[in-house]
Amino acid sequence: MFLYDEEVKAKIKTKEIRRALPDLMDFEEMNTSSIAESEPLEDVRITEGNFSTQTIHYLDIQRSVVESVSFAEANLQSVQLRDTRFIRCDFSNAMIRSLDATRVEFIDCRLIGMKAIECRMKDILLERCDARYAQFNDGAVRTSEFIDVQLQESDFRGVDLENSRWVRSNLSKADFRDVKLKGADLRGTEIEGIILFAADVAGVIVSPNQAMELSRLLGLVIR
To answer: What are the Cα distances from residue 4, in Å, to 12, 137, 173?
Structure first.
């Protein structure tokens, strides 16, 4: 199993991390030209590839690390991800369809304008990612963590975000209409101008300052 740094180990002991962590084994270095083939990629490390603007009809990656690979403006169809870590990868303006991801980490990645429509994601980490204008409509991103992520004007309409955790992230002007936020923790995250309905905030965990911001957005009068 992949050895995490001391900070992550400490968080695991204190149960600060809610999501299940990916199970990453020793892996074999792999030529990036093989990533678009139909065979599943398992227990590999893929580095410095460029698949920008390409159409990939089937992508199945398990127990692997993908580093410094560009999928910018790519069309990715039928994507299956399990126990995988993406480091410094570029998904800017990529279209991802039929995404099924479990225990996947995106670290220092560019996700600007990425579209993941009707995605099914669980136990996901986004850390130090730029995901401004990203779209995650009508899917699920459950029991996941967003740490130091830029998500201004992102679109989460209709997404199940139950038990998600948001730390030092920016959701300014993000669209959260018809989301499920039961058990989600937004404390410490910028929510100025966030768009949502009154029913959407049921069960969400917020700070006192955020509660005031939400009351203003929802038209409440506090006396």
So the answer is: 10, 32, 34
Q: What is the 3-state secondary structure (H, E, C) of 100-135?
A: EEEEEEEECCECCCCEEECCEEEEEEEECCECCCCE
Mark out the alpha helices in the chain (DSSP H runs): 6-13, 208-217
Residue 41 and residue 61 in contact, taking contact as beta carbons nearer than 8 Å: yes
- Up-side HSE of residue 72: CA atoms within 13 Å toward CB? 12
Amino acid 143 reads: T
pTM: 0.86
DSSP, res 90: B
Q: For 201-219, what is each residue's pLDDT tens digit?
A: 888 999 888 888 788 777 6
197 vs 193: CA distance, rounded Å: 13
